[in-house]
Request: fold
Amino acid sequence: MTAYLDNSATTPVCPQAVDAVTAAVRDYWGNPSSLHAKGIEADGILADARETIARRLFCRPDEIYFTSGGTESNNLALRGAAHAMRRRGRRIVTTNVEHPSVDETLKQLEKEGFEVIRLPVDSTGRINERDLFRAVTPDTILISLMAVNNETGTIQPIEQARLAARRNGSPAIIHCDAVQAFGKLPLKPAALGIDMMTISSHKVHGPKGVGALYIRKGVKINPLVFGGSQEDKIRPGTQPMPAIAGFGAAVKAIPNISEELENVTWLRNYMCMRLSALDGVVLNSPPDALPYVTNISVLGINSEPMLNFLSARGIYVSSGSACAKGHSSPVLKSMGLSEERRKSPLRISFSRFTTKEEIDMLVDGIAAGQKAIRKNK
Reply:
């Protein structure tokens, strides 16, 4: 038996998505832009996937644009909005704990003359809403806040972004990286005042290589690439239909979010109870974090030897973001955690398929790892 507890990095593909990908490759391989029968078949699958995702976000199908994944969606949202709005201002507000695909994109925009304000976070990894309201000015053209932090599970007050823009007379487009929240929290971008929202297939048991960007009707952004008329010219190029079919099937297979949240909360609490019995294990995630993501530190043992020890026993976790492999976490540093805690983090991330037995394997593995690694020092 193995214990896969690295679902924030990627999730195993669910059977429904596997079947949909297989059918698209084997039977429905036409180009959805073609007008013959094979193309019409593929276009039907494309439309069904778009409608499925739109229903999950309580939006219109023509507000969903398919991309290659979360990184491209974030780049498209940020660069597209900034350049579309640059005549109205150059100020962008975000946080200092965003995913690299947001942070690195904003660094590039800074080189192009945009001003980026990065809001600090407290010891729980959450921004202060007062800081957000102070940072937004009449010349703020873009606000980008992640819904759930990928390393700690901290939930940001994304609903405050629209209020901050209105109160300060800002024309800002509001973007939300919801990759870690989609399928785990109920999301209604229009009700939250969100103009653009990033989601990804492989975080919800779909295939890699496909994601989507919600763009509220009426919001105009500049495309990054140019070509055909696919995706309303926002993201031209022949759509990867097997991946999109699998994405749609995975979203369709998402069970009741409230019930799953309750189940995962119980598992997280059980894990924390068991971990509390181990000396030298501290919790880095706040109590109100999304229970799918828990960050801990095993004091006195660097992450790599513990990860290797657990992996050898068939227990799979990570030390942080998969997109920051080999680098210490800027998120934990921004939270003000000690160097000792920043050297030894483990990110444990659940899915709806996580079991109590996997958690027992993890806790027993950490306990065994503490003894073995310290003995060999």
Q: What stands out?
A: The two ends are 29 Å apart (CA to CA).
